[in-house]
Every structure is written in C-alpha cells, then in structure tokens.
Amino acid sequence: MKAVLTSAALLTAFAIAGCNAPAADVPSALGRGNSTIATSAPTQSGALYDTAFERIKSGINAQIETFPDVPLPEDAGGGYTHEQHKRNARALFESGLLFEATGDERYRDFYVRLLNAYAKMYPTLGLHPKPKEQSPGRLFWQSLNEAWFLVHAAQGYDYVRPSLDAQTRSVLEDGFFHPIVEFLSEGQPGTFDKIHNHGTWATAAVGLTGYALNEPDYVEKALLGLDRSGTGGFLRQMEVLFSPDGYYNEGPYYQRYALMPFVLFAQAIQANEPERAIFEARDGILQKAIYSTIHQNYAGLFFPINDAIKDKGIATTELLHGVAIAYELTGDATLLSVAQAQGTVIPTPQGRAVSEAIAAGKAEPFAYRSLRLRDGANGDRGALDILRADQDPEGLAVVVKNTAMGLGHGHFDKLGLLVFDRGEEILRDYGAARFLNIEAKYGGHYLAENNAYAKQTIAHNALVVDRRSHFDGDWRAGEEQSPELGELVIGDEMGNGLSATSARMDGAYPGVTMLRHVALLEHEALQGPVVIDVVRASGSAAHDFDLPYHYNGQLIDTNYDIDADTTSRVPLGEDNGFQYFWKVGEADLPDAQAQTTLLLDRRFYTLTSAVPEGTHVLLAELGANDPHTNLRREPALILRAPRAQSFSAATVFEPHGEYNPIAEYTVGAASQIRRVDHVAGEGTDVVILHTRSGEQVTIGFAGSDGDHTIVTPNGSMSWKGPYALLSGPGE
Questions:
Q1: Is 321 a catalytic residue?
Q2: What pTM was computed for the model?
Q3: 291 is catalytic
C-alpha cells in the first residue's frame, strides 16, 4: 500500500507502490480516500451520490470504445477545440475515479489511452494560436485553463498510477506531466508567483501533480513559490487573499472559482503532511472561506458584485467540492441542507458521505443571517455587510458593498447597494459584461463594454459625482483606498427590529466625502420589513450628484409627472458609462419627494425618497451606443441634484401587496408610507417614516457608539449608540 507521506519523506525518494495493485487497496495520495462500492448490489449512499455516479459512469461508457478526440489547439474560449479539451479534462478525472471505485480496468485503460494522446502532442505545442492578453497557454488561450486541466488530470492519475507498469508511467509523466508542470511554473514565473486566482490554480495544479507523481520538488515550489522563500506560492496565497472572516478579495464570483484549488490542494496536503495542519491554518481560514462563500449567495446565485457572471450559483463544481470537504471536516449538519439545495454531489468519498447523511435525514437548515465579512488580509480593508430579515434564503436581504477594490476584477462602486426579495434581485447590479465561452461575442473575452460600462460607477447603485466614476476609473488608485466602516448592528441581537450598517469614503473624488447608512427595519407600524438607505456627500465646491437605482420590474406608478421622450431619445452622456443610457424621461420634484412603485413577480415595491430641493428624476434604459447589442436592456431611476456643494437623500424601499393575474385580484398595491423626512446633522441623520394610517417611525443614524444629538425643525433628538429607534424630539 502507498504510505501517507510526511514532510521528511518529501525530502527523500518517494516509495512507489507496486504495479498492478488492485485499485481498492491503494488510498489516494490526494486525500480523497477510497470510494469502492459494490456496483452490482444496491447501495446505501443516497440518491444524490447514486445519480451523480451513474451520470459520470454513463458518460465515460459512451466514450470508452472510441478513439480519443484530442485536437490541436485552435479556438479561443467557447470554440470547439477549447471545449473538447475541457471535456477531456473531466473525462480524465472521472475515468480515474470510476477505476478506483469499481476496479474495472476498462476505465484505467481509457484514462491511459486519452492521456497518452496528450503525452504525444503536448511537447510539440508552442503557445496557443489565439492567446489571451495575459498568460497565454498551450492547450488553451490562457494558462489558467491549462492549470485547471492539470488539476483534473492529476486527480485521475492519482487513482490509476499505482496499477501502471513503469514504462507506461514514464511515457505519461515524461510526455505530459513533467512538460506541463515546467510550463506552468518556471515557464510562467509571473503567474505562478502571483498572489491572484491565476496563481492559486497554478500552484495547486503543480502541487497536486507532485503528490500524485511522488515528486517532492513540485510540492515544495507549489507551497513556497519558485525560489522556496515563501514570498510566493500556495501558503502565501492563503495568507493574503482571504480576510480573517474568509472573504476573498476579488469578490464572491472569483471566491467561488478559487475555492476549488484551495480546498483540493489543502486536502492533499492534509493527507500527506498532516503536521502542517493546513485546515487549521489562520484559525481555520479555508473552512471560513467555504462558509463565507455560501453566505454570499441569494436564492442559490452568488451576489453579482465586481466581474461576475450572474448565472453562477451554489451548484457550481467548486462549491460542490467545498461543501463536501467542509462536512467531512466539521460534521456540520447545516451544510447538508446546502448540498440539498445544490441538488447533486461530486461522487468522491466526501460526496458520498454527504449523500448518505442526507438520505439518513440528518440535514438541518443552514443559518443564513446578517453578518459582516471583513475585507483585506488583516480585516482592515472595508467589508461586505449582509442584512437579512430572517434565515429564509429567499427573504428580504440587503448587500452593502463597503469593500476594497477587488484588484483588476473590482468595480467602481464604493458604498454600493443591492436589494433582494422573494428570490429576485430587486435593486440590481449589472455584473460583468461578458458572454463566457460564446465565441461569437469577442471570443468569450470580457467585452469592451465591461470596462466602458459595467465597471463604471453609474452601472451600480452608488453615488456618482460630476458624471465621473470613482477614482476616475483607475482600479490601482481604488485598490489603495478603502471605506471607513461604521458599526454593524443586528436587530435580533439588540432586542429590536433594526439592523443597520454604515461606511464613509474619502478619496473616491478629490475633496468629496461620501457617507452611506443602510438599515433593514421591522416595526409594528409597518406591514413588513423595509430597507432604509441614507446617502450623503459634501465637498468644498459645487458638484453634480447622481444617485442611480437600477431596478428590476415594471414601472407602475409615480407621484411625479414624467416628461417622457416618446419619439426620439438621446444618450445621458458621452463617457464614464453614461453614453450607454438612453434618456427615457425626466421629472421635477417640487415637494422634494419622489415615490416610485414597481411590480415584479406579483409583488409591489415602492421607493420613497426625501431629496434636496432642486433634485429631479431621470428615467433611463441601457441600449445607446451599443451597435452589437452587447448590453442587456435594463432600466434605471436616477436622482440628480445639479450644482450643489452637498447632497443628502433618504430612500425607503418597501415591499408590499400582491397582484394575482390568475385569480384576478390585487391587494395592497399602494405604499403604506405617505412621505419620508430626512434631517442631516454633523455626522448624524434622522429619518422619519410617515404612514398613511398616521403613525410615525423615527430612526437615528450615527454609525458610531456614544451619545448623539441632532437638531430638527421640531426640536432636538438624542440617543445613545450607533443607531436607534426614536419616539420624537427629546427622546
């Protein structure tokens, strides 16, 4: 049997298991254990495992008698050769897993035949004929895909290698594994030692190959970087890329993507070098990363901040591995309900254990809750704050983006906001302008509109000054500065229904300070929870202020008369993302109140805003200057205050009522909020909600602890603490 390797053994020759050993007798060097099952007899592994196992078995059986299709690389992302090499990578992993699980030599022989085709081709390849701008690959347009391929190939090889004779090993390792490891490491040092998801995939691929091939040198440089100093490499990636709460600096979309190499390589490290205690490092940072990835989803889809494809959700392969490995480490039964929501497992031993536990009725609800995920390696680069009305994964929820930039994948929306309800994104973020792996759309690259629109501040629910983006669209400048966080208060912890957070941002615009308070409020005077959004800015000179709300749904009613552009339209601007909006209409607000009601999926939503005198409303829709229709046709409501030295607005976002077109009834279509008053003080704000039934709900915002007083037209108000529910003057 293959011994579990220690770090001392890594410094000497690795023992090679005997050839032709039965697959079931050899534990995985990559830490997945044995998954041998009696496939001819009924299993007790549960429906998720059985279905997943039969699916991959059926897929490999369909390929097993055919000659492998290993085409010369030709296409960019989404093209035939690109997709075929991806299919082959999965086949290498799955055929190895099937051989280990069944002992059927047909699966091993298929793996060998397929990888042998790569062993013949790979040494002959130069760089890809359609390389990406950064880090081109050989099999693929970028080396990131190459590392992804190697992760899958190494996992499959780990299962079949012990039963291969020395000559076969030599052909596969000298023809494929050694050349691809050389290319991904010494061949691309800038990527391999980069603290970035590309570097994570490269180091994990090389390290997994090192364990699978018994090559200690590969493992050491994967862990510590090419010069073995520790300034690069996998361990340094763990130190820098995650905050102490497990938040990944590029945001949830890339956290999901980077999670797979982190947890798979860590699993192999744990199996081979348990003395490293890799899953306990940094107070269990990898386990925290798995949990924080789960928390960063709504209704099964990840929060679409930064460069995010909005269709990605918790059923992605990376989190399937993450949830199963976390369950093995913790035995946390709430993870089983996440696996149920995922709807499948990877048929590894960890996936089987999850499936068995679900079948045994052990699943408990995952505790979705309000929380703060700090950003930055030391937790001092802002935070992503999540406010949830309850533990329902499809209940009213608010995401407040007070994070650092997120490197080159970051977007210019400091103090940004998203609102979700009933499984829908209500106040939304555009995400990334990209058709991933659709060759007709710029070869699957990020589109030009990603930089020109999707990253720009106007594409988000964030304050825009002088129609320019934060930091003038320079992500490196944005990376240097982070919001100053106020307190996060959770209502159920405080004994009331007020959960709130705040942050301040200096430097997004020269001489301008921005502040945002966001609260989720449940109160007996209201029929249900509401969101309160307070946005302020001040500067030393006059500015134009735009506060956009990108909404989802049909515009139903307003308290203002819209001067609509019904026969012709003009763009809102010439640059910084404004050029992509058609101006649909505008309206004056003589009473400094804007009330807008939307309808989405049989539910009404009303935004009631108290705004400065002279503010007007712009209604806009994407589509201008977009000859290739690369952008979705999404609407926005913009509160514009021209030529002012300061700006302050308070908006209450209220879900209400029901529209049923089948039973033909409508109830609660009108907002219960009659108006909103907002008083801004020195570092403090008071928002008063006036209901149609004559009640008032008053909230004080400061963001910091201590005693606070604000003078209103009706007298002074005082409170203690960062936020408070108030009764009236003097309270």
A1: no
A2: 0.92
A3: no
